[in-house]
Structures are given as C-alpha cells and as structure tokens.
Amino acid sequence: MTTGRQWAVGRAADALAMLRRHPRHLVLASLVAGLLAAPLAPATILLLALAAAALGAWPLPADCAADAPAPGGSPALALLAAVALVGGALGAQARLTALDRTQLPPRFGTTVTARAALQEQPRPVRYGHTALASIAGENVMLRIGQDVPWPATVTGAILDVRGRLRALGPFEQHYARRGAHAALSLDAVAATGTARGGAIGFVDGIRTRAERALSTGLPQRQAALLRGMTLGQDEALDEQTREEFRVSSLAHVLAASGQNVALLLALALPLLAYAGLGLRGRLIGALALIALYVPLAGAGPSIQRAGTMGAATTVAALAGRPASRWYALLLAAAATLALNPRASQDPGWQLSFAAVAAIALFAKPVAATLRARRVPQPIADAIAMSLAATLGTAPLLALHFHQLSTVGIPANLLAAPAIAPITWLGMLAAALGQLTPALAQPLNAINAYLLAYVGAIAHAAASIPHASIEV
Fold first, then answer.
1. Rounded to whole angstroms, how far apart are CA atoms 237 and 244?
2. DSSP bridge pairs for 404
3. How much is the pTM?
4. How many CB atoms lie within 10 A of CB 317?
5. What distances in angstroms separate CA 106 from CA 99, 117, 180, 268, one per listed residue?
6. CA angle at 315 for the pair 31 and 351, rounded to the nearest 5°
7. Which CATH architecture has domain 105-195?
8. Tens of pLDDT along 299-349?
9. What are the structural domain ranges in the chain?
10. 200 exposure class (CB count in 10 Å sphere: 0-12, 13-18, 19+)
11. In contact, 129 and 153? CB cutoff 8 Å
12. Three-class SS state of 59
C-alpha cells in the first residue's frame, strides 16, 4: 500500500513539475479547471484561482530549470493562471445561461403540433424509442411509443409531429446534457419529404449516402456493425449484439472516438501526399477531413475531443514540432467544455479522456516491460494499450454502469488486428458511395469476413461464465 501511495504521489509531483516547466500547459489547465468549476460557489472558484496563482508563482526546482522551455515561477504566470481559471468559470456560466434559455416551459402539459428536424436516428429504449429533434430552434427529446408508427426517414428529415409536451424525466436527463429543453411524447408523426438545408443539410446528404454505401450487399446485422465502427452509429444494432459487445468490453469500437480519427488520418495523409500536395495542402486537407468527420459521426463529446486532439497533433506533426499529448488533451477539454460545459457530466466524455490519459501514463512503461521479457513489439504495444485503457476506464465503468468485464483484455487483443482494416475499408466504401452505392459493394464483401470475425469474438467472449461482474 505504501509503495502504491508513494508511486501516486510521485506521479502527481511529476505532473505539477510538468505544469511549472510549461507555462502554456499551466494556463490552459487553469482554463479547463475554470470551465469545470463553473457550477461551484464563487468562494470555491476564488480558492481555486488562488491555488492556480500559487502554482504559477512556485519557483522551479534547480534541477528542472535547465530544460524548461520558458521560465517558471513568475508573478506574470501566476496572474495569467488565476485570470484563466476565473475567466473559464465566468465563460462557462455565461454559456450555460445561453444553453438553458427556452420558451417551452409555459407549454408543458399541452398538446402541440409542429415541424421537427430529426437530428439523429431513433434509439431503442424500454417501451419504444427516443430521438433528438429541433422544433422552432429548440432541442426536444422525442418519445416514440411502440404504438406510434415511425416513417422511414434519414437524419436531417423534416417531420410533422403531434404530441404532449412535458419536462424531461429523471431518467432522461442525458438529453438535457445534449441541449434538450423538453420531451414530446408523440401521438402521431409523418414525413414531409423535405430535409434541412444549408451546411448541415450538406453534411446530412453525405451521411445518408455513406449509410447506404455501408449497407450495400451486407446482412442487416453486419451493416449495422459496420456503420457503428465507421460512423459511430449504433442505433440499428439489435439488443443481443449490443449486449455482447458491452460484456466483452468491445463496445468502444462502436462509438466514434480518437481511434477513428487516428485511422482516418493514417489513411488520408499518405493519399494526400501521393496526390502531390505540399505541406500546407496536406495540412488543410487533413483538417478539412476532421472537420467533416466530426459532424458525420454525430458530433458527440467523445468525437469532439478526438477531433480537436487530432487537429492539434496533425498541425504539430506537419510543422515538424514534437506533439505534446498532454497539451492536445487539455486543448480538447477546453474546446469541448467551452462548447458545452455540461459535456463533463457525460460518461462518454469521461471515459474518452480517462482512456487517453491512462494510455499516455501507462502504455509506454508497460510496453517497455513486456519487450524486456521478449514479447514481440506489436503484441507488447497492443497489450499495453488495452491494459492501460482498461485500467483507466474501469473506475468510471463501475461508477456509471456497475459492471466490469473480466474478458476485455483478451477480447480486445484478439479483435485488434481486424479493427483498422474494417474501419479503413468502411471509410473508403463511404467515400466511394458518394458516387454510387454499387462502388462500395466489393469493399463490403471483403469487410464481411472481418466483421464476422469481430462479431464472433464478441459473442464467444460474452458467452464465457462470469464474463461481466457486478460491482
């Protein structure tokens, strides 16, 4: 126990020393702390600002000053850190006020008829489905009962809806974190045959063509799995498949995350270079793809974090500078929290940051230890990544879902060789499908075997006794 406590204290001291050696990191970390502290009392925010100032004014140890890129322990840095923290808290409070502005509460309890823009495909829940839609510029959760016929529609479709408007229930508050101000229990819904326009309508069209391409020539179950692994769309998965991927700790491959952005860049950058683009052209092309992929994949907190980190890392890499993973992680936190200060309450946001932080802390030393024991490097790296991500996210999984997978590491190791090929083939199929879905069929035919392999691993792992334990 003492050794573990000493190790934790040492890692915390290392983190504080890193912040003092890198003033930009300290200021950005103070901004993130302020964004997170917005709901706290003003006195608490002031105490945190004083702590940030003290950290900025704390002189660097003599053995650290030599490698510091900028001097630490200055009054100016202390002031910047305190201002960043207070500014982050005030900015987040202003953003929350704007997000909470609504005209719907006076109409609670009444039956309304309106036109709604569908922002996502309905998700199955007990006794029906739910979906996020926009009505008169305000986000509303649609509650679709089992007795309400739902028309075949695409994301972005304009619907005529009628139902009873009410406040969000206790088990629907995750929609409040996504900006919903009310729930509409539907009595009737009909498609109008129209869709959203403008830039978001353009993205909707790309997504619709990609969805059709990813479903061409594949059975429904595999098509749903491919859409999940490529675009983060898991709404069409049947409950058995969803449960098998959850129990086997493979559910993360069904959500758009940093892995998807990394694979997108790994596929796109060589193609951009092969096309003869220079440094600036490759940078602009990579950033444009990230900016397109984030809304295509639903623009949730996890993919927002991944997109911001991917953009920062790409700029650093193409500029010839060593990418700072911690700075990119702080930048991603600041960007996602500035957009929606409630994002930190989302389990997906928490799991995403915890996994990246754990990989940054533990993957390298674990991989080095395994290589020292003559484990081949690819296997050592895969084990280290899976182990670090599993350990980093385990407390949050226990907190939010009260379950832990006992088969997650071997299941992820077995599935790992197929994940990147599936995603790359899916991305290429989605791109070719913008011309015609038929062009995606040969790629989907190859992908069918890989999808079957990953599905078989999830099924076999979930079938093992005590594959998941309640905690």
1. 11
2. 469
3. 0.84
4. 15
5. 18, 22, 16, 50
6. 50
7. Beta Barrel (2.40)
8. 777 788 888 888 887 777 766 665 577 888 898 999 999 999 999 998 888
9. 2-100, 105-195, 205-470
10. middle
11. no
12. coil
